[in-house]
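The data are quoted verbatim here:
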Amino acid sequence: MTEQAEGATAAFAQAAKAGESLSAALSGEIALKKALAAREMEIARLRQRIAEMDAHARAAMGREAALQQQLAALYSSTSWRIAAPLRFAKHLVAHFPTLKEWLSLTRLLNRNIPTPRHERHLLVDVSELMPREALSGIHRVTRSILKDLLRNPPEGYRVEPVYATADRAGYRYARGFTSRFLDCPVGFLQDDPVELQQGDAFLGLDFHYVIPTQVDFFSDMRRTGVKIYFVLYDLLPILLPEAFPFGFATLHASWVSILNKHADGVVCISRTVADEFARWLNANGAPRRRPLQIGWFHLGSDVENSAPTYGLPEQAEETLVLFATRPSFLMVGTIEPRKGHTQTLDAFEWLWQSAHEVNLIIVGKQGWMVEPFVQRLHNHPELGKRLFWLEGISDEYLEKTYAACACLIAASQGEGYGLPLIEAARHKLPILARDIPAFREVAGEHASYFSGKEPGDLANAVKNWLALCAENRHPKSDNMPWLTWAQSVERLKGVFLQGNWHMAWPADKKTQSSVKNLFSSRFELSS
């Protein structure tokens, strides 16, 4: 029994140990299952996170594609082009710009961000009038053309006077000057920099040596699509260099070269000047991509529509009475070497010594290189008797002087036109003129002519004229054609705005030959 009991106890103990081992195994299995379940849950969370990240990535890729499309549209848009100058400005500020870079910036801004406007501008250069305004010495031709352009602007254009100075690049609106010119209140408008727009036109109305300093601005005008035109009065400093101060011929040639390079067209004040300009281009002109148009028109003469000056000195009426006491010969124009004043005074001294009772009236201010002649006038024994010098008189006084005289003497050795001849014709005043192409073009058969540079040549011409006048057989200017300023400006506009040009340079061989033959004598005379 004892042995059986011990055996049972041992079996029981083994069974208990086996139960413990099984229980431990079961517990381990349970723990493993729990661990596996936890790992599967972690894997599921990771897979969910990956899916979420993939979705975010796909969304980001979609947003990037959309942004690329937006950037592409921006780079090709007008707004991006307009903003280019601002980015350039930021670059300039960061790199301490030079004055040249700043000027480049302002021109770039002007071209790309212009003030919106729907009308074209006719930019009329009045640079020569600006400094003369305070002295009341505005040139009659320029102020007359300007006045009519402002009064009757070309269809589709707004006339804007502009000016430039040698110490500043670019042109500015001459709004202060224009207000004074039109007798309008001053101070409301500023002389802002000119803004260019395609379709505008520039008219260099007056001759000014500031033009060569503005070549960059003219280049900007060409790039913007602005047409450039100039009025050319003459080539006299080039043709008669001895009659002008030293260096004038070089300066004038430089100015004309600017016209050759930058202008679309040049409008001359006579056909004589147009053909002389063409001949100068044949000898000196620089090659061009497009032909240079050359035209011409004639000046007007009605003083009442030329913004005239007024005022008479105290002794004016007494002086005008003296003009009527004997035949009075009138000279009008600035006293300068080419005008023939010395030859004329010498001729009249010869006439006075020969007992001819005639007056010589000189109207015009002192010019250059005439100091000895002016001193001679001041000290002349006939001054105030049969010799009169009216210096810097008003248009009103000049009109009365024309009416009181017997004949106009035009003794100039070279002219682009001859406005005094037209003014004389308005008063039906006979004309005795030097035989030069410009005077022939203006007066034709309605004037008497003389040749020669000696005093006796002119004295004999005056004597012959007096003899013909006594018999009423002298040429008369009564029917000589002349234009009003309104008609003159209409012809000017017809040339540069409507295309009524005289020729194009380079010209064909036939035109070049005609110009060369017709005016060769003029150039040989000045050489």
